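Lab meeting tomorrow. Look over both lines:
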Amino acid sequence: MKAVIFGAGQNTLNFFRKNPASNKIEIVCVVDNDNVKWGEKIEGYIIEPPEVIRKLEFDYIVVTPVDSDDIIAQLGDIYGIERGKIINSRNLIVPAETNLGTVKLQCKNDQCYNIYDLIPQCIIPSNPLEDYYFMDSHNVMYKWWHYFEVYHIFLKKYINTEARILEIGVFNGGSVTMWENYFGRKSTIVGIDINEKCKQYEEGNIHICIGSQADTDFLKNVSGKWGPFDVVIDDGSHMMQHQITTFETLFPLLNENGVYICEDCHTSYMSCYDGGYKKGSTFIEYSKNFIDFVNWQHINEEKQNSNIADFVKACHYYDSMVIVEKKKRGYSVATKFGHE
């Protein structure tokens, strides 16, 4: 695969340094719109003006900036590049070195692919959520592939039960219908969103509540009307204080033996969500207290937040996900037992 890299900022550095695909493709050159960068080097490549694209042979132009709409328009309008030859750097994968969860791919594991060339014909699902996401017709969802494995590990116990599920963040309605399909008609699926247009996805056992996850009274009212919930999934604003406020409001109201999922926690490292590496106010740093909660009887300090601390049975970390299982732990005991 021959590729032109468009962009010469931090995302390009991340692509070169972190994405295994950068070692599997033939990089023709690196271009950027910022003329200040022209002639400089990035990871050994000289940064050139976009005009050189007219003279190059390539399979794809790989765009690294997150906000790529303007670049895509520029490539089409000015340089006549067809849309199918423009891809985002996040969409280049080497299956053998990619976190796919339990999704299997029918392709060569050590080669680089445009991820959308593999969907759905090369997908081999391993659980009902993967099957629905990749094989069924549904409204738009945007999910990391490894989420489906994690969901299934912790949520399969609720399949075909009268479980009450709350998801914060409805977006285009794809996930609430996925949950209905997964848990079954006996379940109650509740979605929260600030966008009133999301009401259109309400039908059958799917209910949509319009309001902000930053509003604790609103969250309590939703729980009072439709809960207590067995599962809470926070896929809302991803803002740090919103995630913390939502957890502190809804975790105490969660059914015992329930599961709380905060997803897209990579935003804890992103300044645009008020995140930052090791920044004390992020949800990731906040959640590290859960480790102490689990082990509290061994700590000689006064307990705080007992309505949370006493009920954190376990806390699990996956890429971009924090999963908290709820159960009143009680006092752990040990015995010496057996024959000497």
